[in-house]
Amino acid sequence: MTVFTIILTVTIYFISRKIFLKLKNPLLTPLLLSTVAIILILHYSGITFEQYKPGKEIMTFLLGPATVALALPLYLNRQILRESFVPILVGIICGTIATLTTAVLLAKLNSLDSIIVTSIATKSITAPIAIEIALITGGDPAIAVAFVVFTGTLGSMIGA
């Protein structure tokens, strides 16, 4: 079942990507469309989350190496990054402060549980890093990843 769920997930993602590239509708981003499709397939096929989970664990593990692989484009563009180092650094610092402040303040103003507040603070980073930070800070890795995915999906829909 594990191999089947991995193949299913990857196939659904590539189909979703083809649909997005053809229709160019920001509401049909591959991440959103494939997530909805997988949920519907699991629900109506009778595949339980426990059956899907081993494949999910393998794909989640692969997020770490995939994130590390992003070092190659950074290396290839190192000259541009060096030339724009200060503006990039200022943008990252300002963006980090703004996103952390607004996320945590809004969560606290709405009296959300501290686990959710801690988890929501990681919403604008990659899933593997959000998982690690959530574990270190006492947040919930699943909630952290959900916020990362939601933030990324919303960002891709707005920026698509």
Shape assignment: globular
CA(first)-CA(last) distance: 35 Å
**Poorly predicted segments:** none
Sheet with the most strands?
A: none
Report the portion of residues in β strands.
under 5%
Give the ordered list of helices and strands: HHHHHHHHH
Radius of gyration, rounded?
Answer: 18 Å
Helix content: over 70%
Number of helices: 9
What is the β-strand count? 0
Q: In total, how many domains does the architecture comprise? A: 2
Mean pLDDT over the residues: 89
What is the structural class? mainly alpha
List key phrases describing it:
160 residues, globular, 83% helix, single chain, mainly alpha, 9 helices, 2 domains
What do you see in this structure?
There is one protein chain. With 160 residues, this protein is an all-alpha fold. The protein folds into two domains: 56 residues; 95 residues, no CATH class. The chain is built from nine helices and no strands. The protein is globular.
